[in-house]
Design brief:
Structural class: alpha/beta
Number of strands: 14
Number of helices: 12
Strand order of the largest sheet: 12-11-1-3-4-5-7-8-13-14
Shape: globular
Helix content: 25-40%
Largest sheet: 10 strands, mixed
Order of helices and strands: HHHEEHEHEHEHEHEHEHEEEEHHEE
Strand content: 15-25%
Radius of gyration: 20 Å
Distance between the termini: 25 Å
């Protein structure tokens, strides 16, 4: 089933909130892992409230807006993300206040950044979400996962962690993930997997992700087995998405050095026609109308990818989130996002329709799952992490 078809099914179920909640309880596999029956019931109740009141499906939160790496396909340094945030690091008290406000109808929190594990209280944030019955996913480049941090993760884990694993050798990894150290990366991943094994916990579910591009495509065949040998739960390959707010120089570099055209690989998000990038995006299919992003300074944003253009909707915890979400300004913006392009940058967004492939360890075999695995755009940069 394609992402577009799944979206249509969800839209139909939303017309009957009770059916939507039952489907969430019965069919959403990620909620089963390490969850008690009571937690799953709680998530279904939240899903009912969310559907009934028209609240967002996913809340992406930036605990901080800085990152130690300078990845070639990322633009947060060039866009100076921190200049568009009131604070570089979100105070724990503000985070707790935001979560307490949205907890009655929130099922999913995605932690992105920047790099979430820069935040000194990130595992306390996971714990607070867990106490409020919220599923959590943390996207990380994994370079800061030293022994102390790993011990904190095992003590207070997110439900899932998505870790970047871009290449199978140091030279290529460090060319793509500038300022990264491949040996440190591998050491950190192995240490976390081993610590989880020793703890006997199901959590966090560990996914290693490769962002597919021209430079690493020759390693994909060996990638699946290497991730299996490392002991991760899931291996994932995502096609590169070019940042909508990136400038012309960035887009040209992506075109020349990174983007694989759809004519060469069906999971690509872009094609190259007459030497120019094209974006596989359908009007009326903006997934960010059902998600929201909250910056490290409490900024409520329509889309994570619109660092500059997408803000200005309000600040939490300064005022209740529901008041911002239901404001006339935000409602009109969501209507524009569905009717066409709300911002000029929207014309350069891949939206829905992007594809990928993942494999899960099951009965000591690797099983290829559905190809359409891209997380909702605007719901955090779990994409090019």
């Amino acid at each position: 089933m394609t992402k577009a078809t799944l979206s249509q099914v969800r839209d139909w179920l939303r017309k009957v909130p009770v059916l939507y909640a039952i489907a969430m309880f019965a069919l959403t596999r990620k909620y089963w892992i390490g969850a008690t029956f009571g937690k799953r019931v709680g998530l279904a109740v939240k899903a009912y409230r969310r559907c009934r009141d028209g609240m967002p499906d996913v809340v992406a939160i930036q605990p901080d807006c800085v990152c130690p790496l300078r990845c070639e396909f990322c633009q947060i340094h060039e866009l100076k993300l921190w200049e568009h945030r009131r604070r570089r690091v979100m105070p724990l008290a503000d985070f707790a206040s935001i979560i307490d406000d949205i907890a009655p109808y929130t099922t999913d929190i995605q932690f992105s950044g920047g790099e979430p594990f820069i935040h000194p209280d990130i595992t306390r944030m996971f714990a607070h979400c867990r106490a409020r019955g919220i599923y959590t996913l943390a996207a990380t480049n994994a370079v800061l996962l030293n022994d102390e941090r790993i011990a904190q993760i095992i003590a207070n884990p997110p439900d899932a962690m998505l870790m970047s694993y871009e290449a199978l050798d140091a030279r290529l990894y460090e060319e793509i993930r500038k300022k990264g150290n491949y040996d440190v990366l591998v050491r950190n991943i192995r240490a976390l997997i081993e610590a989880k094994r020793k703890s006997g916990s199901h959590l966090p579910l560990i996914t290693l992700q490769m962002v597919l591009n021209k430079r690493n495509r020759h390693q994909v065949a060996d990638y699946w087995q290497q991730v299996a040998d490392m002991g991760a739960d899931i291996a994932s390959v995502k096609a590169l998405g070019v940042w909508p707010e990136g400038n012309a120089v960035h887009r040209q570099k992506m075109l020349e050095d990174y983007v694989i055209p759809m004519s060469e690989d069906p999971i690509s998000r872009h094609d190259i026609i007459d030497g120019r990038l094209t974006y596989q995006r359908r009007e009326g299919q903006c997934p960010s109308t059902r998600t929201v992003s909250i910056g490290s300074g409490g900024e409520v944003m329509a889309c994570w990818y619109l660092v500059v253009a997408g803000g200005g909707l309000g600040y939490v915890p300064d005022e209740p989130f529901a008041r911002i979400w239901n404001s006339a300004k935000y409602r009109r913006l969501r209507e524009r996002m569905l009717d066409g392009w709300a911002f000029e940058e929207c014309s350069r967004c891949i939206g829905v329709g992007a594809t990928g492939q993942s494999k899960r360890v099951k009965r000591e075999e690797w099983v290829v799952e559905a190809a359409d695995k891209k997380p909702d755009a605007g719901a955090g940069d779990v994409d090019n992490k």
